[in-house]
Amino acid sequence: MKKTAVMPYILIFFLLFIKISAFRVLIFDAKSFWHIALVEFPLWAFLLSVVLLVAHKQLWQAVWIFNLLVSIIFFTVTLYLRYYSTIPSYYDLQQATQSSSVSNTIAMLSTPWDFLFFLDAVLLVFLARRWRKPVKLPAIKHIAISMAVISAISIGYAIEQPVIDVSYFAKENGFLQSQVVQLYNRSTDTAHASSTKLSEKKLEELKGNKYVKVSEQESFGRAEGRNLFVIQVESLQNFVIGKTLNGQEITPNLNNLLSESAYFSNVFQQIGAGTTSDAEWIVNTGLYPQGMIPTANSLSGKEAPSLARTLKKEGYGSATYHADDVTFWNRDVLYPVLGYEEVFSIDDIPNVKNVGFGPADEVLFRFAADELPRQLETYERIYANIVTVTSHTPFELPSSMQHLTLPIEYEGMYVGNYLQSIRYADEQIGFFIQELKDRGIYDESLIVILGDHSGMHGTLVTKEDQQLLSDFLGHDYSLKDQFTIPLIFTGGNLFEEKELTRLGGQTDIMPTVLALLGIEHNASVMGHNLFEYKKNLLGMRYYMPGGSYIQSEQLYKAPGAKLPGVLHDLKTMDERRKNSDAKKHRKDTETLMNYADTLLTDYMKD
């Protein structure tokens, strides 16, 4: 066959190889020619071969569309990695329309270099003009078969490997292969869950504690008979509590509240891909989220033994408030699973003073306050779950809602916008607390305030932002600063000012709340009463590579796509040499996470 007949096919495959190589270097910092040629490239080449065989009469159009789709995938993965510090699963990619936190900040996440992924779309147009009707190449069948065989071998090998961290797994086994394995694991329900079962006593021993029955714990029943308000604050991180900027408090209302609160300052987020909705799941079940897939999107609809259901047995009516579309992250499925009797969303909350995703927090809190008289008449006691939304990425507020006078170096910066948003959220929390006091409800209530997850993370936090954060904190912005959220328990005559630095996680919130209310929960949970236990062990699946953990003395970040594993002293965040304790904690964390998945499986789709 003439060289001119073969040339267009060589160039088509060559462009794909170059693009895949650029993707590997950018995402994984992986530059091995042989790994690209023998692991990453073959499966993509097989798909391209199928396209060439099926669409020969419209070859250039089909190749152009195929390459465009590959470019969109690579571009999306790049932006996702910059924001979430992990690569997405197939499920995340198909849910791209719901990833508003990324889509709304695409201009901030992307760089001009990223658009080079689409350069081949232009080059293919020139090739199409040069070879308008390429000669049919029988060798494409042989290429397809050989690429299929190589791909089958690599997928077969990958399926036998544990997917501890998706990014690291994709680096070693190929991006497409990692998606195939996740799909396979999901379909066979073998991704993480096992037959592992842990008693409450064994669970506490893994965490380093001596088990104490809930009813015998010192704090049990301290808030018995009280109403319950849980305020989940969007993007609220612990490092802002008690801090000032040019003499201005970032959280003056929360700071004032601490004088009559128990404040846990060493509590870590444990969310997965579902971010805020995952936090709602964890806080209301005491269970871990699914990890790489938003938990709410995987629920079968089976009722969970939740906070609302346990409280209902004690005469509580429950309501949740979120000024967003109830279908976002499948909350229309999540909320019935959690058992709320009343659900208030954008369909109910006045659609006024819109900022970002919907009505501002001041509208949300006013609406919730106005519902209280009716609810107090309807129910013996009330449980209200309020989820704020205004302090969401990209943290841009109109000047009328900005309460801070920022120094010039903070103006227009991501960290400056973040501090303004948190200051606004704090103001609205202060309003709601005052409403409870004015209505005579505060002294009859247990109020829990927490952050759902970090706001300052990913490449949106520039080097300039990092420097401002270092100046603001007085030390380098660390993983601990990123992942810790404030957890505050308050209410009239319940607590004296007290800061507790023992390690906690979001899974601990529900067990702690129920213990304070003097109520036992008749279902397994992963967390425990933070007032009772001093030691803890938390697994992490998102924002840190799988296999990472936080223990009362250590934070271990497992190997990821680019960086090796690192062990930190939890208090100072100084790097430490790996030791026998770290090995034991990694093994115990694996046991703990397997059990977490065993509990979660009951509520997931088949």
From TrEMBL:
Domain (Sulfatase N-terminal) ranges: 226-519
Keyword terms, alphabetized: Cell membrane, Membrane, Transmembrane, Transmembrane helix
Keyword Ribosomal protein: no
Main location: membrane
Residues annotated as transmembrane: 7-27, 33-55, 62-85, 105-127, 139-159
Pfam families for this protein: Sulfatase
Pathway the protein contributes to: Cell wall biogenesis; lipoteichoic acid biosynthesis
Signal peptide: none
Location(s) in or outside the cell: Cell membrane
Tagged with keyword Cell membrane: yes
Gene3D superfamilies in alphabetical order: 3.30.1120.170, Alkaline Phosphatase, subunit A
Membrane topology: Multi-pass membrane protein
Family membership: Belongs to the LTA synthase family.
Name of protein: Sulfatase
Organism of derivation: Planococcus kocurii
Lineage, top ranks: Bacteria, Bacillati, Bacillota, Bacilli, Bacillales
